[in-house]
């Protein structure tokens, strides 16, 4: 019979003096209280899991002797539990052992209960039953159990087995060597990579490493489901920023040779501490280049004004050039007309013709008037053109185009092609 003192159990119960003879098997779990409560009979106080004082330091407390009726009922449950244990029905045996302990707590019953728990690999309650066995033996006899040392080793082994039976949790990080804190603990639980075992339920893990942002995660452990984590740690970003302010829109901003955006910028540019080359440019405008020194947690402002790189040619210049060209053309046509008249009328000059009657001819007079008018109109247009050019040159050139100014409220219209499923045309985009 694998459980102890079966035949003489209740004789020892009656006198409250037992001497267990069978040593505990080396097994082991985490503590889990399995303690019987007295039924309708008065029973001794439940055994404490705290270490008992040695016999030479404290005398055994006075025990209440069980009644004969209680002994009989406890014997019945214990006999039934033993039979179930022998037949391999360990779960049912546990129920009967606990029923016996509810009537009367005895070290032997706790020992046999622990053995039944061991058979079911329920390590934690088995360890607790062994602890109750040791404590109650000392309490009832005044002396440690004969197998005290062996049983204590068994309890430690059971605790280890109970721990290893829990679901495995693997925690890793990149880079490795991060401190691991589980369930809000202030004490260090380990460093990555690490493996641990946690009971079922919700848990949390926090990783900390110098120079990196801390990271936390909540997770749930389920029965027989290993949990694996791998965290990519992010370096602490002691960054600076550059705030760029430019007078015109759509100017490209380069930082260290790379285009990072166009004006207007609504947010500062985040950069690493150090020196940075800033270039601001736009077609038809002058460019601005500068070097800034950015410190951590500091924002450096860069203000720039871009101007048109060449004078825009206004309508004044266009009118002036056109007038000069047209006036020169008319004057040239007038000279050509003069020779046409001389040849047609066989004269030696426009006003010294051979035939006296030719001067009075209607056609001659008309052509003569046209030549004079041509000289006048051509000279007038040329003079107008010269005046317009002088005005164009003398006027102050525009620094920027109004529609390019940031904050300008002048409307602008752009025409562009428009393509539809069945048609092609032009559309207009207005900006206000």
Task: Please give a structural write-up.
This protein has 432 residues and is of the alpha+beta class. It is 36% helix and 22% strand. The strands form 5 sheets. The chain has a 4-stranded antiparallel beta sheet with strand order 3-2-5-6, with no helix packed on it. It has a 4-stranded antiparallel beta sheet with strand order 10-9-12-13, with no helix packed on it. A hairpin with a 7-residue loop joins strand 2 and strand 3 (190-191). Helix 4 packs antiparallel against helix 5 (123-141) and helix 7 (315-345) packs antiparallel against helix 8 (362-394). It is rod-shaped.
Sheet having the most strands: 4 strands, antiparallel
Question: Beta-sheet strand percentage?
Answer: 15-25%
How is the largest sheet built, in terms of strand order?
3-2-5-6
CATH fourth-tier homologous superfamily of the largest domain: Tetratricopeptide repeat domain
Secondary-structure element order, N to C: HHHHHHEEEEEEEEEEEEEEHHEE
Global geometry: rod-shaped
Q: Tally the helices: what do you get?
A: 8
Helical content class: 25-40%
**Weakly predicted, low-confidence segments:** 4-61, 347-354
What gap, in angstroms, lies between the N and C termini?
100 Å
Number of domains: 4
CATH architecture assignment of the largest domain:
Alpha Horseshoe
Task: Determine the CATH topology of the largest domain.
Answer: Serine Threonine Protein Phosphatase 5, Tetratricopeptide repeat
């Amino acid at each position: 019979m694998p459980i102890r003192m079966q035949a003489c159990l209740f004789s020892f119960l009656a006198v409250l003096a037992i001497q267990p003879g069978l040593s505990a098997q080396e097994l082991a779990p985490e503590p889990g209280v399995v303690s019987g409560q007295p039924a309708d009979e008065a029973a001794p106080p439940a055994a404490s899991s705290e270490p008992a004082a040695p016999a030479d330091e404290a005398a055994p407390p006075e025990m209440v002797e069980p009644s004969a009726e209680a002994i009989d009922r406890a014997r019945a449950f214990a006999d039934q539990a033993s039979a179930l244990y022998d037949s391999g029905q360990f779960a049912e045996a546990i129920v009967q052992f606990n029923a016996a302990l509810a009537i009367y707590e005895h070290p032997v019953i706790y020992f046999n209960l622990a053995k039944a728990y061991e058979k079911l690999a329920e390590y934690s309650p088995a360890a607790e039953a062994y602890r109750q066995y040791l404590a109650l033996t000392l309490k009832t006899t005044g002396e440690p159990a004969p197998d005290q040392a062996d049983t204590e080793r068994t309890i430690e082994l059971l605790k280890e087995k109970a721990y290893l039976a829990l679901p495995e949790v693997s925690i890793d990080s990149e880079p490795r060597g991060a401190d691991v804190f589980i369930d809000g603990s202030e004490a260090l639980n380990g460093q990555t990579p690490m493996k641990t075992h946690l009971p079922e339920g919700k848990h949390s893990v926090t990783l900390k490493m110098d120079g990196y942002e801390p990271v936390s995660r909540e997770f749930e452990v389920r029965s027989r489901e290993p949990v694996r984590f791998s965290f990519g740690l992010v370096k602490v970003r002691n960054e600076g920023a550059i705030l760029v302010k430019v007078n015109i829109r759509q100017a490209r901003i380069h930082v260290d040779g790379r285009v990072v955006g166009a004006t207007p910028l609504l947010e500062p540019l985040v950069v690493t501490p150090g020196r940075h080359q800033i270039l601001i440019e736009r077609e038809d405008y002058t460019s601005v280049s500068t070097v800034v020194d950015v410190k951590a947690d500091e924002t450096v402002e860069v203000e720039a004004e871009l101007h048109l790189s060449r004078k825009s040619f206004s309508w004044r210049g266009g009118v002036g050039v056109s007038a000069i060209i047209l006036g020169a053309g008319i004057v040239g046509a007038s000279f050509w007309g003069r020779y046409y008249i001389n040849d047609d009328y066989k004269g030696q000059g426009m006003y010294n013709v051979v035939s006296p009657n030719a001067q009075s001819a209607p056609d001659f007079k008309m052509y003569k008037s046209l030549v004079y008018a041509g000289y006048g109109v051509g000279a007038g247009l040329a003079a107008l053109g010269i005046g317009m050019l002088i005005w164009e040159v003398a006027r102050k050139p525009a620094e920027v185009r109004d529609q390019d100014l940031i904050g300008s409220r002048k409307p602008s219209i752009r025409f562009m092609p428009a393509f539809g499923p069945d048609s092609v045309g032009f559309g207009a985009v207005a900006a206000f």
